[in-house]
Amino acid sequence: MPPLFFFLSFVALFSALGVVLAKNPVHSVLFLILTFFTLSGHYLLLNAQFLAAVNIIVYAGAIMVLFLFVIMFLNLNADTEPHKSALAKIAAAVAGGLLLVVMVAALRDVQPGTTYNATTFDSQIGMVGQLGLVLYQKYLLPFELASVLFLVAMVGAIMLGKRETGERHF
Amino acid sequence: MELPVLGWQALVILVVFGISLLIATYSTYAERVIAAFLQDRVGPDRAGPFGILQPLADAVKLFTKEEFFPAGANRALFVFGPCLAMVTALMASAVIPFGNYLQFGTTIVHLQGIEVNIGMLYVFGVVSLGVYGIMIGGWASNNKFSLLGAIRAASQNISYELAMGMALIAVLMMSGTLSLREITLQQSVPGEWHFWNIVKQPIGFIIFIVCAFAETNRTPFDLPECETELVGGYHTEYSSMKMGLYLFAEYINVFVASAVMSVLYFGGFNFPFQYELRDFLAQSQGAVTAQNIITILGVVAVFIKIFSFIFFFMWVRWTLPRFRYDQLMRLGWTILIPLAIFNILLTGGLILLGVIQ
Question: Could you say which enzyme class this protein belongs to (chain A) (predicted)?
């Protein structure tokens, strides 16, 4: 479906640029949510329904709500923005450029249209059942280790938020 | 045969869309009548016989009111908020199976907007997006009370989504599929005693219905629009039909929540003795007509279940007082989530022992 692909790609790039270029942080967050939707659209084109739904639920539905939550409270605007030093800007540009190099390097050897055969392609690939089998058979250890990592992050958040002895009750 | 099937499916989608709107419209009327009944009043009875034209009168009133933009409001997002609330509310009914299938000659029409194998995740995803309409509207109003309402809505929805998702996981462990149609069909098997999921998942159902009340912002969890503390909550600054869209979206959410509960826990379009009735009708009418009659009775059954749940939502609203905000959070995080985890363990254990499947 090339027309749909190009449309989704256009919207994805447009909204991703909007995230960076928008003056208002709330607009940035809304553009980021739109970006997640277009990414889910790409997942659907790649026959990964489960990934598409989970992307919406986790990123658009939960994480971005918390982002929006915090940004609405902060009431950021151009007047209150702290001045950033030139060193920080250069460091950000170098880090972003390095990330681009890594991504291009990862995709450099991909030859479109030659990695799969349309006649032997398994239509169930990307469906939730297949994904579950792969996660729980081939990648069981990394999967479980990732969940331990989440647990560590949760414990850390609780430790940071916990009231220490002698601290006043609000 | 590809195009006629698509044509039929488009018709089904249009009908589902229309029914969602119609039910939301008449939910406003039902709310007033039920409130009147519970408070021993007469209720709306001026517009038309028994007041059944009241929703139309309300709509005319809302459309003709002045459209007001508060000073300092973000105009684009102020309009976008209610639109988003309405769109996300209407999206969820697309995957709900309202009936089995109708057969005309060789054409089989499934009475469901779209059949996807991630149906349950789709509903869950759309429900989790519903809060954006409230948040954006509340923030764009440039009003402290609206912002507080929006923030309350966000934290409440996120807190209760967790318990709701875990209640769903227990259902999923039994069904082994995310498709709402498959889950419905599994709840009834010809020729044997087969119970609806409510019998196997009583704890899960209670968790789910409590979370549904919180997700739809209905009393006793309507903290985002708590008028004793926040004037009108997130829609304080709204007037005219933008206000109407917010109110309307809430009723559509109630309808969708009722439909999801009927499908997941109360057998959806199944009703008792449907296979016996089908076999009896098949003797005189033929197999195809018998199946069609059963399907139509199934649609009636699912709507009876949905209306019962909508009535329950309204009954609770006019019976229970509103929670305090800290009580709401404590209920969500320290009672419902541990209970949901316990329910998952219990379901897993019972499946392992072969008590339920």
Answer: translocase
Residue numbers in chain A where pLDDT is lower than 70: 1, 75-82, 112-118, 121, 168-170
CATH label of the domain that carries residue A24? 1.20.120.1200
Domain count, chain A: 1
Q: Please name every residue paired with B11 in a beta bridge, in sequence order, or none if there are none.
A: none
Nearest CA in chain A to B161: A62
CB B313 within 8 A of CB B254: yes
Q: Are B125 and A61 in contact (CB under 8 A)?
A: yes
For A128, which of B74, B155, B178 is closest by C-beta distance?
Answer: B178
Contact B154 A68 (CB under 8 A): yes
Chain B residues whose CB is inside 8 A of the A52 CB are: 118
The predicted pLDDT at position A79 comes to: 62
Chain B residue whose CA is closest to A72 = B139
What whole-number distance in Å separates Cα of residue B324 and Cα of residue B225? 13
b/e map B42-59, b = 16+ CB within 10 Å: ebbeebeeebeebbeebe
Residues in chain A: 170
pLDDT beyond 90 at B250: no
**Cα distance between residue A58 and residue A44, in whole Å:** 16
| Whether A44 contacts chain B with CB within 8 A | no
Mutate to test the interface with A, among B151, B168, B341 (most CBs of A within 10 A): B151
Closest CA to B174 of B198, B138, B146, B140: B198
What residues does each domain of chain B span? 2-353
